[in-house]
Fold this sequence. Notes:
Layout lengths: L2 H38 L8 H14 L3 E2 L1 H9 L9 E5 L5 E3 L4 H13 L1 H23 L5 H13 L13 H21 L2 H17 L4 H13 L3 H26 L8 E5 L17 E2 L20 H10 L5 H4 L2 H8 L7 H6 L2 H7 L1 H19 L32 H19 L2 H6 L29 E4 L2 E5 L4 E4 L2 E14 L5 E8 L4 E6 L7 E3 L4 E7 L5 E2 L4 E19 L5 E9 L3 E3 L2 E16 L3 E11 L4 E7 L2 E8 L4 E9 L2 E8 L5 E2 H5 L6 E2 L1 E8 L4
Antiparallel strand pairs: 1-3, 2-3, 2-4, 4-5, 6-7, 7-9, 8-9, 9-15, 10-13, 10-15, 11-12, 11-15, 14-15, 16-18, 17-18, 18-23, 18-26, 19-22, 19-26, 20-21, 20-23, 24-25
Helix pairs in contact: 1-5, 2-4, 4-5, 5-6, 5-7, 7-8, 8-10, 9-10, 9-16, 11-16
Amino acid sequence: MGPHDSNTKKKSMMPYRNKLNRINIILVLLFLFLSSITLTAPVHRWGDASTYYMQIQSISNDLDIQYQPEDIERVMENRFDELPAGLFLIKTESGKYYYGKEFSYALFASPFYKILGNNGILFFNGLMLFTMILMGYLYLREENEEKIALTVSALFFILSTAFVYIFWIHAEIYNMFLLMTSLFLWERYFKSENQNLLLLASLVFGIAFVAKVPNILLFVPFLLYELYCKRFKNFTLMLCVFLIPLIITYGYFFLNTGSISFYGGERLYYAYQYPFVEGYDSINEAGKQGFSITENRVDALMNIENLKVVPYNLFYYFFGRFTGMFWYYPFTLFALISVFASSGDSRTTLKLNIKNYISSNEDKVLVVIGIILYIVFFCAIIGNNYFGGMDAVGNRYFYLYPAFIYLIKKVDIKKATVIIFIAVLTLNPIIFDPIENSSNPSIHLTTFPYSYLPIEYTQMDTLPFSDYGHKIDNLFVYRLDDKSEYTDGTFVVNGSADMIIKSEKEIESLLILLKSKNHGTDAYVFGVNAKNPINLGMNETKAITTKNLKPVYADKRYIVYKVSVSSSDDLAITFKDVSQTNASVFFFDNWYNMENWNGVPTRWISNNATILIYSKEEQNLPTNLSVMSYYMPRKLEIYNNDILIYDTPVPKQFVTVKTNVSLEEGINMIRFYVPEGCSNTYDVKGSDDNRCLSLAFQNIDIKSDG
């Protein structure tokens, strides 16, 4: 090769080098962006982060995983948010405490915490997210242009709920990172047959298993593939290397705790009253029994007796309002579409028979098998909480998300653009405010498009309804939108509002009380056989009693009913199951919120308050209550359906009042009236609550033979 040829080659290489330089600059900027937001973000706790956080500071300072007095002292001296609320500990027979969580995440995060403090943990999460983007880019550029590969990889992770979890002191990003890394190494092995890469992938899979047991389901197809190909040496080496992290971590844990599992032994949960604080220790024990595989409580995890919920779970896993994979991780849809596309024309690929397709896409098929095993495991075995519980944003157990990037081959720009549009639409209210959404995972659920998505009825006990769920007697009522407000047992609706009612048993007879607040109104209540409008005059109260309700969902745990309410003006509405009771009492008007006075429910009124009593028949019932006056003696008048039936002076201490109420069939109004009026607490004591109080009521007891 002469000098001329050499110069020609240098010139031909320049565009490629310039392209690489541009990509490198973008990668550096991306790293700086993730670093800056994690190092400056406010640090909060979510879920059961306390255990992870205390493990990290224990390893950083003491090089152990034992819970000791100095650990809790350090956290109390430098506490933030609500930490250490939600602490899991395993108590040994000798009375020592160890953290009841796996500790590999804490081990790898501890150097970052030691150097950078609390934000160092978030920086560690951000670093793992950046590394996943880098690995995705290196994988995708094999069949795509550099800029397309980097763009798709970056959007794959950032336009997903995975981005939210970098702000959590939790192991979600860590689990994703381990699976992303192990799959990246295995893909390299599959294309190069470099045995060292296979063994390294198996080692990382072993760490992933330690981090979360179901992660093994992505490893199993690769292990069996070596057996199927009769590469017995590879199979044996893979298994041996995979077991190394297990033997080290579980062995160390067993030697210290006597428990073979992080979820075994005497596993205790502490919301407060931690050992070595305020006199609590292994003898003066305040911990409550947590889930433990040695306490015959596997039924709390598994849902085998409710296998009929599995088809529902599978549907909700993809399309649910709270957990749907396609809404919180939209690029999974793009990956599933891409898996059927060959490196050439996708239409040609679809014409191939299944055998030829599998033989030409063995790596993709193995990843798909792992994904299927993983999803089925969570939907069937952990069927009553497949997504991570009340603090979850989307599905926080969706650790297998990185596996989907390995289903993408040649990127179709048009399809990618559609997915990006869906991602921006569904994730915009989440990823642009990850801190607030983590604090309140339900705030985006009343916005478009989530308000139109199906609710995961199989997960009602663990859904992050937050402020939208309310207990009224033996019913749980959930608001599905912001068209109603809840105050102490009553909803106020103006417009149209949707609600669902959850009951542990079938509701044979549901009573719905309606009251117009300001003006007369026409109200509609759908879902309870009420097709015609209910006409209400000003401040008028009416009742609907409906039988044989049709549930929208039912299993052995509970039954769910849906109710829609529409009104042209402010309308107060409440619900009560009157299937078994002969007389039902409602605190309906002008009662202040219930207070707990030494374990006794207590309610204040201003000077005029009402209870409504629904009776199935005409009857006279004895009524007892305790009442006390605020600031000065007053008089209490009791009206039964607007007829004065009793009056008595009330001193500044509790006295017992006994009378009888005469009930008609249907709704009856009992009104408590104070002629002297109420006293403003600010004027009396300079109180900040500024309520106007007259009488406090306790132990209102209306004797019913039902």
